[in-house]
Amino acid sequence: MPVEHDEDHFEGHFEGRLSHALHDTGDRFDADRTALVAAGLARGRRLRLRRRATVLGGAAGIALVGVGGALLVPWGGTPAPRPSSSDVAGQPSGTPTATPTGTSTAPPVTSRQLIEALEGLLPKGKVSEQDAKGATNSLMPPYVRLVHDDGKGPGAITVGLDRIEPGSEQARQTTKCPDKALTPHDNCVSTLLPDGSLLKLFQGYEYPDRRVDTKRWTADLVTPAGQHVSVSEWNAAAEKGAPISRSEPPLSTAQLKELVTAKVWRGYVDSIPPNTGGTGDPAESDPPGSPGTVEEPSYTEILDTLVPLLPKGAKVVDRGTDYSYLVIDDGKGRSLVEIDVQHGMGDVADELFGDDAETLPDGTLVTDRKDAGDKDVPGCVRRTVDTLRTDGFRIAVSSYNADGPHAAPSRATPALTVKQLREIALSPEWDRYR
Questions:
Q1: CA-to-CA distance for 326 and 300, rounded, in angstroms?
Q2: Average pLDDT for the chain
Q3: pLDDT at 74
Q4: Are the CB atoms for 104 and 271 separated by under 8 Å?
Q5: Closest CA to 381 of 340, 420, 410
Q6: Cα 113 to Cα 128: distance, rounded to the nearest angstrom
């Protein structure tokens, strides 16, 4: 059950930059048990990503799926070559040349340099509301923001710079197109560039549920040296709280690609002092005793195990790629079924299971609940059965009366009853992953 968070517009700019890192995981959080359950699931996913990153980080290559097939990315942390003199010609004054990430001896990029670089790369138009943060503060990576008007209305544009471990799971997730069931969007393409960089071009919306029709288009570039450049633009003067001012954001996808791949940004990433930005988060590290080396089952393994456990007559019409879900139809309408399989969740048992939780003879905790889902969709009904074995192994299964978390109800009640959800969650078939 993906969690969603709603962020304020660049509050002190730290919240804004953080929000973009979390954006595709959602748009709200309530301090109630439903939110705690969802937060626990999100925590499990973070643990899974870190554990898989440990395995994938040392591999010779990783697969990027979703662009008409699998792309083998030959990443092993090899530094990108220095740009030729033609590459750096015409760059703003003071721009450091690209070097292996984190080894540049150039002074950290300043706010003024970032603003000048972005303005110089944009097509003709009026620029206003410029704001930026250089690489002098180790608490967050640099960014630049402004409003651009090409005569068709103002649109906000931001560029963020950071580092990502080459070949890591985070690098793959950053440049992988999201599942439409989780993040509704109009178009997304991920490609491998000739220099070995991965590029994702995304056309979606600020609010996945479209409660406000503000468009958000993004471009993410991750180079073989781990330089991460992220560009976002909107068809409004601000990402939130501003009226729609034009039919589409200012830059076309071709212009987005040209902007995000500009060599100037890579040099600026290399000027970031060590420990600025990056991927490490001590607050997210595994607590002592956590099974950090346990390999979580893949989404394919989870869904392949789930399908035979469905009741007879439940036809699978769709299945997830970015998280473990199915859409089933029992003849009464489509229903989303979500499942999460997690290790090491014993330390949050008190937060996830109340005093009314059932304890089975083998010590397994079981609870069920009914709510309206995480997205505030009118008429939405979600049933959930949550289980926790004594070794911290957790299975949570949910069924909706709609075919997606943002979708309008397609039936009166979810396809799976509490009894059926319980049978699925407690099935011994899951023991193979313990």
A1: 11
A2: 76
A3: 32
A4: yes
A5: 410
A6: 16
What the block records as the tokens of 249 is 């954001």
For residue 362, which amino acid is it? D
Residues 3 and 27 sit within 8 Å (Cβ to Cβ): no
| Closest alpha carbon to 407 in 374, 368, 369 | 374
Residue 1 CA: distances (Å) to CA of 62, 126, 198, 225, 405: 26, 43, 28, 34, 9
| The pair of three-digit structure tokens given for residue 110, joined into one six-digit string | 């300043």
Instruction: Read off the pLDDT of each residue in 54-58 and give the average, rounded to a whole number.
Output: 30
- In the sheet with 126-133, reading across from the earlier edge strand, the strands are 126-133, 143-149, 154-163, 227-234, 215-222, 198-205, 187-192
- Cα–Cα nearest to 224, from 197, 200, 199: 197
Both tokens of residue 381?
């009904």
How large is the average pLDDT for residues 258-272? 94
Give 180's contacts (C-beta < 8 A, 6+ positions apart). none
Assign 3-class secondary structure to the chain.
Answer: CCCCCCCCCCHHHHHHHHHHHHHHHCCCCCCCHHHHHHHHHHHHHHHHHHHHHHHHCCCCCEEEECCCCEEEECCCCCCCCCCCHHHHCCCCCCCCCCCCCCCCCCCCCCHHHHHHHHHHHCCCCEEEEEEEECCCCCCCCCEEEEEEECCCCEEEEEEEEEECCCCCHHHHHHCCCCCCCCCCCCEEEEEECCCCCEEEEEEEECCCCCCCCCEEEEEEEECCCCEEEEEEEECECCCCCCCECCCCCCCCHHHHHHHHCCHHHHHHHHCCCCCCCCCCCHHHCCCCCCCCCCCCCCHHHHHHHHHHHCCCCCEEEEECCCCCEEEEECCCCEEEEEEEEECCCHHHHHHHCCCCCEECCCCCEEEEEEECCCCCCCCCCEEEEEEECCCCCEEEEEEECCCCCCCCCCCCCCCCCHHHHHHHHCCHHHHHHC
Structure tokens at 272: 């970031």
Q: Would you state the structure tokens that stand for residue 411, as one six-digit string?
A: 């039936």
pLDDT of res. 285: 41
Q: Judge whether 1 and 41 are in contact, CB under 8 Å.
A: yes
**b or e along 356-379 (b: 16 or more beta carbons within 10 Å of the residue's beta carbon)?**
ebeeeeeebbbbbeeeebbbebee
Instruction: Return the percentage of the chain with pLDDT > 70, whole number.
Output: 70
> CA quadruple 44, 57, 25, 145: dihedral positive or negative?
positive
The answer on pLDDT for 357 being more than 60 is yes
